[in-house]
């Protein structure tokens, strides 16, 4: 065995570390970028190996052969680098068979030219063997294709470096270390290449690029073992962040500084029935529900969260809107992120807790006191029939209260599947309940459309009808039910000729909270309100002439039938005449008859 | 080659099989190192010595071949032990523990040693490079699942796989005799071709006959070295339905067959000597190694598991020592 030249030994060191790094990279597949890093390193090893053969060869044809073989490695390096950088930093959508094929056209053509014996001297205009102090080189005068592929290599190298340079400024230390090691590993051979092409190397024919592959091999090895290059790649971060935005349950809108919509997530599009492609670029006020109200809320700086009612896919729901500024590196606000958080379930629970607490502390206590008092009286006069009947009535009311409390609990059981029933069945059931309470009542039922409605509506109507005839002292109480359906909404009106509801009762419902001094009586109206809220609908109370009350309940037809905005972004026209729209109505289609 | 006892007995009389693997008993550092050394490093040493002996026997100039083949053997075995660490937990628990605990470090060392072997081969020329790249190419094929059923990569080849022995054949382990023969052939290719390729000596200049005879000799000797440890594993192999000589013919029958094969090896050695090309001291050394092998075969059922794992390969170490002495 003849002794190797010092240059060959240097190259073999590069082969050793390069191949070791390539094996370790290959072993990490399918981690993002592993295959392409292996390609890059294999290219370097190939180049260095056949340069050794070239250096050790003694004749011009032999040197020229090994020189041509090196091209496979030379062109593989930039392709491997580009796709490694893209895959590793999470831009894997640019790493497709098509893009790989496209990027590989010129490298493949170069290899083909070299394999064909360099026809027309495209790669090398001239080749001579040159004896120098450090060895005998094949001194190649570059041909036109040589400069083309060299420029192409620098281009791919630069493009691949961009995402990695971004990582250097990353907050996470491991990624900074990784990208620094990678850039060193890449910059070293480039420096060698630039020195060669610019003629800065005094030894003719010596391209130092493969010589510094040893440096880059060590850098890659360090990155792989010390900085866990491929096992801790930043690639999933981009997708994960995107996924969080897309899959977030809460609707999110991104509004640019000029008030134009920049982005919105899937939930926003679905919940508020927005066409994503059309919405982006539109003024936020035309797409984001209650945009002005949300902005006012934000500008007022009121820390206390306030719910905004918006009509969307699930009917009308209360949302808590938060606005966050998107700030760039120079502390400039570039956009604002508006998040809508549905607080309906939370508010409902809070109300139920509040009301049930009152029922227990006030209503049950009052009845118990009553029973206690009249029981005392019965003790002194066991023949007091009135005391007995009062006790019986009181006990009856407590039993009813207990029943209604139970039905309220069942109504909102989150584990229950929401079922639907025909509206006719719901009305029939409610009328039957009313007749059971007041057999003498005159009940009129208008035309009822056979649309599917959630079964919860049955409970709501049952409570309304029994209230209408139950609290009516007349001999033959009168009551009438009318229904109307339009644009996915069902409107049910229950009218009676009773004494009317104390305004204080529905004031409390409107406010949504009770206080020890201001509270409703019983639980029936609350069940109606919770039921309607639960369905994403609304309820209104009106006085009737000459006496009585008209209660109007408006709910979406069925969960599967979404009331959405028209294609022009306008809300659907209210189906019914009485549609005084208040500030509570959403921009995406108000329920008809917004009422009081 | 390179084995630990399958079920090392502990002072308390229990065996690894009956002790929890999740909380293994504390083992002395020395035993751990010994267990590790008996694995890939021992294989690498044997491979290197074998190549060195063959180099002398062929009379070709000493090259980096023994080092390169040793490095490749180390890389292949170390990587395999890391990959199969979980599966080896019952047969070679100590080595498996080291492989599990230091898997990443072992892989870095294995990759470096393969890289160095390739670099040495590149320095020796294209033929040597091509020879050394074979196991790497097979490994890439295996790792990318190009070859179906490659999961049985080394398993089917039994304990002994030469540096070029990662021949991926599905369920080769089930094919009687072919399993050992494939390993022996791969081993012989590496041991005989490497000295020529690294020294840049064409086969013709040494003599096709001598090279062929030596190749045949190393093949049959390697076959014996693969089959002898099977005597130890006869119960386990029979339970798994793996066909080996001891399973098919019993220990006594196996011994007879292996003696016959060793006799063939002796004949091949004599024929090689008759060509007059091979170096007499090397042939003498190989003869001593053959004698050691016959002794080991004779004692096959009396040696314990640990000794039987390494004893056949020690014949090459003895041959190397004799060669140095001569």
UniProtKB/TrEMBL annotation, chain A:
Residues 359-559 form the Histidine kinase domain. It is an enzyme of class 2 (transferase). The keyword Endoplasmic reticulum does not apply. The keyword Metal-binding does not apply. Keywords: ATP-binding, Kinase, Membrane, Nucleotide-binding, Transferase, Transmembrane, Transmembrane helix, Two-component regulatory system. GO terms for biological process: osmosensory signaling via phosphorelay pathway. GO terms for molecular function: ATP binding; phosphorelay response regulator activity; protein histidine kinase activity; protein kinase activator activity. It is found in: Membrane. The chain crosses the membrane at residues 6-26, 33-53, 65-87, 94-116, 145-168, 180-199, 211-229. Its EC number is 2.7.13.3. Signal peptide: none annotated. GO terms for cellular component: membrane. CDD domains: PAS. Residues 237-282 form the PAS domain. It catalyses: ATP + protein L-histidine = ADP + protein N-phospho-L-histidine. Residues 556-596 are annotated as: Disordered. It is a multi-pass membrane protein. It comes from the Archaea. This is histidine kinase. It comes from Halorubrum distributum JCM 9100.
């Amino acid at each position: 065995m003849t002794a190797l030249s010092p240059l060959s030994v240097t190259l073999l060191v590069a082969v050793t570390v390069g191949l070791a790094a390539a094996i370790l990279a290959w072993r990490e597949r399918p981690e993002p970028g592993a295959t392409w890093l292996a390609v890059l390193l294999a290219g370097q090893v190939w180049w260095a190996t056949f340069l050794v053969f070239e250096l050790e060869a003694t004749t011009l044809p032999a040197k020229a052969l090994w020189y041509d073989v090196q091209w496979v490695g030379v062109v593989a390096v930039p392709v491997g680098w580009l796709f490694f950088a893209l895959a590793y930093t999470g831009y894997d959508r640019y790493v497709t068979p098509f893009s790989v094929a496209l990027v590989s056209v010129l490298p493949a053509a170069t290899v083909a030219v070299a394999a064909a014996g360099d026809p027309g001297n495209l790669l090398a205009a001239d080749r001579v063997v040159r004896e120098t102090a450090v060895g005998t080189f094949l001194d190649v005068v570059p041909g036109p294709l040589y400069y083309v592929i060299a420029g192409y290599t620098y281009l791919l190298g630069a493009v691949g470096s961009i995402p990695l340079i971004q990582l250097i400024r990353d907050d996470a230390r491991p990624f900074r270390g990784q990208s620094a090691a990678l850039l060193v590993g890449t910059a070293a051979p480039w420096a060698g290449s630039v020195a060669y092409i610019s003629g800065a190397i005094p030894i003719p024919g010596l391209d130092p690029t493969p010589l510094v592959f040893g440096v880059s091999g060590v850098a890659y090895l360090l990155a792989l073992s010390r900085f866990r290059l491929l096992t801790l790649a930043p690639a999933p971060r981009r997708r994960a962040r995107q996924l969080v935005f897309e899959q977030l349950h809460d609707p999110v809108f991104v509004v640019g500084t000029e008030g134009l919509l920049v982005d919105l997530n899937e939930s926003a599009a679905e919940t508020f029935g927005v066409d994503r492609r059309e919405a982006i670029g539109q003024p936020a006020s035309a797409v984001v529900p209650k945009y002005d109200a949300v902005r006012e809320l934000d500008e007022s700086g009121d820390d206390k969260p306030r719910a905004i009612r918006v009509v969307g896919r699930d009917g009308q729901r209360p949302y808590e809107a938060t606005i966050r500024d998107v700030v760039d590196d120079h502390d400039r606000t570039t956009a604002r992120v508006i998040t809508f958080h549905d607080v309906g379930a939370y508010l409902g629970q809070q109300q139920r807790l509040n009301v049930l607490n009152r029922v227990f502390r006030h209503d049950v206590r009052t009845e118990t006191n009553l029973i206690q008092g009249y029981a005392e009286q019965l003790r002194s006069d066991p023949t007091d029939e009135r005391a007995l009947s009062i006790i019986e009535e009181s006990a009856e009311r407590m039993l009813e209260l207990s029943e209604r409390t139970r039905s309220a609990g069942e109504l909102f059981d989150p584990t229950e599947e929401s079922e639907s029933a025909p509206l006719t069945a719901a009305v029939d059931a409610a009328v039957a309940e009313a007749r059971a309470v007041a057999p003498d009542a005159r009940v009129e039922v208008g035309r009822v459309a056979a649309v599917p409605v959630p079964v919860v509506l049955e409970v709501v109507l049952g409570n309304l009808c029994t209230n209408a005839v139950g609290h009516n002292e007349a001999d033959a109480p009168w009551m009438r039910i009318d229904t109307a359906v339009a644009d996915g909404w069902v409107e049910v009106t229950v009218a009676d000729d009773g004494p009317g509801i104390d305004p204080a009762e529905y004031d409390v419902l409107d406010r949504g909270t009770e206080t020890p001094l201001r509270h409703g009586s019983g639980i029936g109206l609350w069940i109606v309100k919770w039921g309607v809220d639960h369905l994403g609908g609304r309820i209104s109370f009106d006085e009737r002439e000459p006496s009585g009350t008209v209660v109007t309940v408006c709910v979406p037809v069925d969960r599967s039938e979404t009331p959405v905005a028209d294609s022009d972004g306008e809300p659907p026209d209210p189906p019914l005449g009485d549609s005084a729209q208040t500030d509570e109505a959403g921009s995406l289609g108000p329920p008809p008859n917004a009422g009081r | 080659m390179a084995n630990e006892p399958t079920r090392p007995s502990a002072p308390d009389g229990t065996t690894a099989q009956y002790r929890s693997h999740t909380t293994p008993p504390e083992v002395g550092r020395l035993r751990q190192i010994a267990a590790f050394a008996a694995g890939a490093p021992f294989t690498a040493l044997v491979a290197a010595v074998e190549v060195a002996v063959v180099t002398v026997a062929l009379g070709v100039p000493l090259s980096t071949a023994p080092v390169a083949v040793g490095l490749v053997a180390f890389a292949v075995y170390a990587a395999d032990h890391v990959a199969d660490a979980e599966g080896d937990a019952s047969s070679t628990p100590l080595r498996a523990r080291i492989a599990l605990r230091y898997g990443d470090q072992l892989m870095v060392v294995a990759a470096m040693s393969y890289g160095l072997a390739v670099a040495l081969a590149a320095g020796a020329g294209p033929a040597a490079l091509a020879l050394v790249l074979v196991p790497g190419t097979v490994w890439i094929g295996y790792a990318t699942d190009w070859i179906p059923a490659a999961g049985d990569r080394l398993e089917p080849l039994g304990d002994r796989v030469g540096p070029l022995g990662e021949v991926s054949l599905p369920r080769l382990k089930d094919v009687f005799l072919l399993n050992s023969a494939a390993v022996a052939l791969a081993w012989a290719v590496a041991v005989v071709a490497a000295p020529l390729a690294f020294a840049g000596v064409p086969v013709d200049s040494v003599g096709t006959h001598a090279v062929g005879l030596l190749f045949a000799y190393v093949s049959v000797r390697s076959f014996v070295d693969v089959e002898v440890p099977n005597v130890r594993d006869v119960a386990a192999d029979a339970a798994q339905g793996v066909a080996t000589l001891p399973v098919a013919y019993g220990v006594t029958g196996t011994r007879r067959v292996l003696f016959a094969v060793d006799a063939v090896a002796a004949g091949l050695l004599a024929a090689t000597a008759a060509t007059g090309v091979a170096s007499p001291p090397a042939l003498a050394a190989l003869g001593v190694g053959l004698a050691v092998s016959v002794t080991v075969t004779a004692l096959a059922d009396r040696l314990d598991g640990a000794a039987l794992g390494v004893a056949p390969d020690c014949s090459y170490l003895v041959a190397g020592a004799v060669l140095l002495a001569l």
